[in-house]
Amino acid sequence: MAKIVPLSTEKHLNIKLTHSNDFSRFSKEHLIPVLAREIPSLAAEFPIVFVKNGETGQFIPVAIMGIEPEVNLYCQSNQWDAPISPIGFSNAPLSIARTSEEGDNVIVCIDEESPMVSETEGNRLFTDEGKRSEYLTARTNALLDVAAMHQQTQAVCQFLADKNLLVSQQLTIKLERSEQKININGVYLIDDKALNELSDEDFLELRKKGLLPIVYAHRASLNQMSRLIAKQNQFDKLQ
């Protein structure tokens, strides 16, 4: 179980972090939030769709990594076998949090229960004098970059929603284990019809904002459902 606390020299002076591609902590998360900027690259491996936050109404792009809830087909073992992974997978065990809802100040936090936390091997977070190490500075800058990209992603999703491009659709798949088809509900896709019916002015705005690669990558990524079905069929045979 995670134990996330603010990073401090008093508690973590001698802490080191190791690197790991063991993403089994996501084994029960079949929908993984991604950033708009990484959609074109992730689309070569995962279906990318949008889901709506029931509380805020905001849309979120996600990579589908499992057909059934609580089964991430890519994270059932400690061996990551895909050529690419979401940026968010590499943040752990560090994270950032705002010090207040109104302000922009943030603090770096650490999951003390993470297997990547060590006192004997890895990269130190602080020097003997209690100053941030070059490694921690680089990791912090990366976290801040991700936070900025998260804000950009929210803006992209809001723009797509404002242009009525995100349409609720049902994905229907067929698995080897069952004669019945399985429906995946609650997902939103960028609708081809709505895209084609955009005014010249709106389409130009879409292009100027650099969103066309994201739109087309999302649409192309849906072809990866066949890859996911094959992984599910293989997973079923091993159960």
TrEMBL record:
Protein name from the UniProt record: Multidrug transporter
